[in-house]
Amino acid sequence: MTEDPKPRRRRAKREAGPPRDGHPATVQVGDARPAQTRGPETSPAAPAHPGPAPVFQPVPAAQPPSSVPEGPAPRRRPRMWTVIACVVVVALVAVAALLALGLRADDARDARRQAYVDAARQTILNLTTIHPDTAREDVDRLLAGASGEFAQEFEGRADPFVSVVADARVATEGEVIVAGLETETDSSATVLVAARAIVSSADQPEPSPRDFRMRVTITDTDGELTASRVEFVP
User: Fold this and answer.
1) Burial class (CB in 10 A: 0-12, 13-18, 19+), 84
2) Could you tell me which of 179, 177, 165, 159 has the C-alpha nearest to residue 230?
3) Three-state DSSP state, 49
4) In degrees rounded to 5, what are phi and psi of residue 55?
């Protein structure tokens, strides 16, 4: 004999929703069968030649605003050519200043030397230019520019000299041919002078030239240039 199978339990079933017309919802009872066991699910086969995988670059996170106040932008260092240009300009200015000072010093020295030469020329002109009618004025003019040894030579001789010139009717007209500086110190200079005098007198009314070469020492006394010595040069 075969045994009866075990009685199957039926599953209750009811309709969804609230009961209609006040009647309870009907419940159906079905067979309670064990659920079928499914095997592991398999994914579809991958393609034979997969393409390159997409590359995702990370996006940097947003930085929170800084609470520190921004200071002034840093200064840029000057370029090398700017520094060189400044150095060149400074050097040129310094050289120009030195040249200007040198030129001023040269001009001052040249002016001083020329003043010595001019004083010597005037002394020789005064010495070689004398007329009988103006002898006193001529001698006074000569002594006004004399000092030292040269002035002493005329002490006590000015009046006799004026009398001789007036009596002999001596007339001389001087001319400086050339003059040049020989030596120079801080307060004096010697000047060589070549001169010519046209001489006439009562005994020799015909004017005749006479040439002289003289060395004149000019001395600077408190800014005043005078002839302190006059000597003939053979």
Assistant:
1) exposed
2) 179
3) coil
4) -105, 125
Among candidate residues 195, 71, 199, the one with its CA nearest the CA of residue 131: 199
Phi, psi of 205 (to 5 degrees): -65, -25
Which DSSP helix (H) or strand (E) runs through 181? Answer: strand 171-184
CA–CA dist 162, 147 (Å, integer): 20
- Collapsing DSSP to helix, strand or coil, 173 comes out as strand
Q: Considering the domain boundaries, does residue 126 fall inside one?
A: yes
The encoded tokens of residue 57 equal 């670059």
pLDDT in tens, 88-100: 777 777 777 766 6
Handedness of CA 10, 12, 15, 19 (dihedral sign): positive
* Residue 59 placed within a domain: no
Tens-digit pLDDT profile for residues 13-29: 555 445 554 444 444 44
Q: Are 121 and 195 in contact (CB under 8 A)?
A: no
Write out the two tokens for 83: 């520094």
Q: Is 217 helix (H, G, I), strand (E, B) or coil?
A: strand
Spatial CB neighbours of 28, under 8 Å, sequence gap ≥ 6: 12, 13, 14
Instruction: Answer yes or no: is 67 within a domain.
Output: no
Find the CATH number of the domain harbouring 184: 3.10.450.540
Contact 218, 188 (CB under 8 A): yes
Q: How many CB atoms lie within 10 A of CB 23?
A: 7
In a domain, 172, yes or no: yes
List the domain range (segments joined by +) for residue 180.
98-232
Does the reported pTM lie above 0.70? no
